[in-house]
Amino acid sequence: MSATLVEIVKASNLKLKPEDDKLGFGRYFTDHMLVMDYSIETGWTGPRITPYEPIALDPAAVIFHYGQTAFEGMKAYRTEDNRILLFRPEKNFSRLNASSERLSMPPINEEEVLEYVKQLISVEKDWVPTSKGTSLYIRPFIIATESFLGLAASKQYKLVVILSPVGSYYTNGIQPVNIKVEEHYTRAVRGGTGMAKTAGNYCATFNAQTKAINEGFSQVLWLDAIEKKYVEEVGTSNVFFKINGEVHTPELSGSILPGITRMSVIEMLRSWGIPVSERRISIEEIYQSYEEGLLEEVFSTGTAAVISPIGELEWQGRKIVINNKSIGAVSEKLYDTLTGIQTGKIADTFNWTTEVN
Amino acid sequence: MSATLVEIVKASNLKLKPEDDKLGFGRYFTDHMLVMDYSIETGWTGPRITPYEPIALDPAAVIFHYGQTAFEGMKAYRTEDNRILLFRPEKNFSRLNASSERLSMPPINEEEVLEYVKQLISVEKDWVPTSKGTSLYIRPFIIATESFLGLAASKQYKLVVILSPVGSYYTNGIQPVNIKVEEHYTRAVRGGTGMAKTAGNYCATFNAQTKAINEGFSQVLWLDAIEKKYVEEVGTSNVFFKINGEVHTPELSGSILPGITRMSVIEMLRSWGIPVSERRISIEEIYQSYEEGLLEEVFSTGTAAVISPIGELEWQGRKIVINNKSIGAVSEKLYDTLTGIQTGKIADTFNWTTEVN
User: Fold this and answer.
1) How many CB atoms lie within 10 A of CB B54?
2) Which residues does the record list as N6-(pyridoxal phosphate)lysine (modified residue) (chains A, B) (predicted)?
3) Which of A65, A182, A219, A222 is most worth mutating to test chain B (most B CB atoms within 10 A of its CB)?
């Protein structure tokens, strides 16, 4: 298999592109998509760019019944000098393969698929929005397509990559959010699929999320499912605590998604000489550090918001306010530096960005 | 909405029906399917029987990314006097709604959808196979179809019901199976989705299942994810232990699927005067009862096999053989009575069957 696409079928009619301030998240999709197919006999074949169009699957396709699937999320950013940058995309494709392994799905050739995705973005380069904070969201996903209701891994899969121009996450500036510690529902447990980016992990969180929003919170903080004691994630983001000058984040225990922004934040903080520890962190400890006046900043990290400062936490009816509900200095510096590197405004001394030609 | 179908579109070409001894499980599908659509504005509308055909979905459909979906499995049996019977189908549609609630999906009208399914089976009545042990497997499933990558419950869904003629589970007579207690992977945890029949629970088990099969076992026994101590399920079936004249099965803790065969076995045993307790059962206790010579029978229950006797268990390298690897008297009586009722050979004193006209 060569890294040259075998086929590009152009859409005959191009869509009207929405205004940058109307984009929102994940509502609009570009004119084309990337598709590849896998069968156990041939491996991955037929990489092609096609018009963005419905996927037709047999009603007995494994994805509909047993949910074998994995996905990724990443962004392409337009620089002021009109280049298009990707941020550590090789990490996304490496994680996609890690997810696939947990779901009994075949690996892709990471380098080749990344090349195809660059070609897709190149075809769709006019879709990369220009306003501050906007980007082209990239969603690769693999679905199990064999028509078979037996309980076994599918022998056929489809990889699809779609692109969606997305608006600024912070249209009104960065506002620290209020988060509720979830006591009833759980997101993941050791031995399960929590470390994989797979569909079933996400629908499982909607009930808790809706309940939190109805109670006036913007998201939930997940505790571990075993002892309901240790902090795991916030919504679908990783979480960090700055306590007495040091930054702490839950260790990758198997039930936590290994975020690429998480990884980058850790590397960046250490490059600044700020110590970071990855370890088990109990919610008790967070509250105690607050009582002692040592809890300086709390923030979550993810592809969508990059850095999202947390201004309030509520656990068992006890509310604590962090940094006077303002973004902390370290959170802000992380946000500015990461988004600066992503958009080419700051020199990429980490060598994290990749240009799309 | 009336319980009369608004539309039946007949397939123009009917498929060749496979021989009963070639059926297997979930490989062949009938000529038609039932479809309904939901939108948040209109509720469930447009129940229709259409030719069995691919489902075309936008690549951004929620099912592909966040996995909102629930399904059911049930069977239609042909009696010797050529009637078609369903076994407690109302329990399946009630469980489908329970699953949907956990997945933030809208409920269906259980009675109406059951009527539609009966009409579908009536259209496909020639597909209900006749040989001993065969049946027509019924697979209702709901998938989230809104084209949106935001993390929120879909505003659109599709209910589809497909039918698959399936072969006898026991073509060579009932053979007790050997089961390995799974130590690494977990199936579900409290606060998660274990009690729901949803796709993500199933793909999560494939790795463990493959490993067990490669080691010469036919399935795994799942322990609870918290203490790795209490018995939960076997594969995707509920599990029962007959110890010193009494039958024990794990209680419905939230991480266990409330099986309809499980429910029926409990009711049937009690009607026979055999005590059944639903409670937490540790794997230690099972091994101890074996050491004491009190472990009389072990079997799993589910729609596919009805009753599947377990002849060997292996846990931490310790193998125990149950009832000399033969099916036990109670397991056999349960199997004969349940399948007898399902196929109309035994009087249905429980009023469990429903005839399709």
Assistant:
1) 13
2) 197
3) A65
- CB contact, 8 Å: B193 with chain A? yes
Of A212, A206, A211, which is closest to residue A178 (Cα–Cα)?
A212
Closest-CA residue of B relative to A200 is: B200
Inform me whether the C-beta atom of residue A230 falls under 8 Å from chain B C-beta atoms.
Answer: no
List Cβ neighbours of A161 (8 Å cut-off, separation of 6 or more).
A33, A34, A35, A116, A117, A120, A138, A139, A140, A141
- Would you call A18 an interface residue with chain B, using a CB distance cutoff of 8 Å? no
Same domain, B140 and B181: no
The distance from CA B9 to its chain's CA centroid, rounded to whole angstroms, is: 29
Mutate: best of B65, B195, B227, B257, partner A, most A CBs <10 A: B65
- For chain B, 357 residues long, give each residue's pLDDT as a single digit of tens: 445 666 899 999 999 999 999 999 999 999 999 999 999 999 999 999 999 999 999 999 999 999 999 999 999 999 999 999 999 999 999 999 999 999 999 999 999 999 999 999 999 999 999 999 999 999 999 999 999 999 999 999 999 999 999 998 888 889 999 999 999 999 999 999 999 999 999 999 999 999 999 999 999 999 999 999 999 999 999 999 999 999 999 999 899 999 999 999 999 999 999 999 999 999 999 999 999 999 999 999 999 999 999 999 999 999 999 999 999 999 999 999 999 999 999 999 999 999 998
Q: Which residue has the tokens 């620089």?
A: A79
Residues A138 and A189 occupy one common structural domain: no
Residue B227: closest C-alpha in chain A = A226
A186-219 CB burial, b ≥16 within 10 A, e <16? bbbbbbbbbbbbbbbbbbbbbbbbeebeeeebbb
CB contact under 8 A, B102 and A71: no
The reply to whether A11 touches chain B by the CB within 8 Å rule is no
| A222 is a domain residue | yes
Give residue B76's identity as a one-letter amino acid code. A
Adjacent-strand bridge partners of A15: none
Residue B306 near residue B261 (C-beta atoms within 8 A):
yes
Domain count, chain B: 2
Residue-wise pLDDT tens digits, A29-56? 999 999 999 999 999 999 999 999 999 9
B139 and B80 part of one domain = yes
Q: B294 near B306, Cβ under 8 Å? A: no
On whether any CB of chain A is under 8 Å from the CB of B155, the answer is: no
Asked if A96 contacts A102 with a C-beta cutoff of 8 angstroms, the reply is no
Measure the CA–CA gap between B345 and B357, rounded to whole angstroms: 18
CB atoms within 10 A of CB B1: 12
Is position A262 within any domain? Answer: yes
Handedness of CA B81, B87, B93, B96 (dihedral sign): negative
Strand segments (E) across A238-305? 238-243, 246-250, 276-279, 295-302
User: Could you tell me which residues are beta bridge partners of residue B140?
Assistant: B161
Q: Which of A106, A131, A166 is the last residue of a domain?
A: A166
**Domain end position, chosen among A127, A142, A166:** A166
Kindly give, in sequence order, each residue whose CB lies less than 8 Å from that of residue A129, ignoring residues fewer than 6 positions away: A20, A23, A78, A135, A136, A165, A166, A167
The parent domain of residue A197 ranges over: 177-342
**Do the domain assignments include residue A350?**
no
B322 shares a domain with B233: yes
Asked whether residue A219 is assigned to any structural domain, the reply reads: yes
| A127/A254 same-domain check | no
Residues B154, B238 within the same domain = no
- Same domain? For A43 and A120 the reply is yes
The CA dihedral of A86, A88, A90, A92, to the nearest 10 degrees, is -90
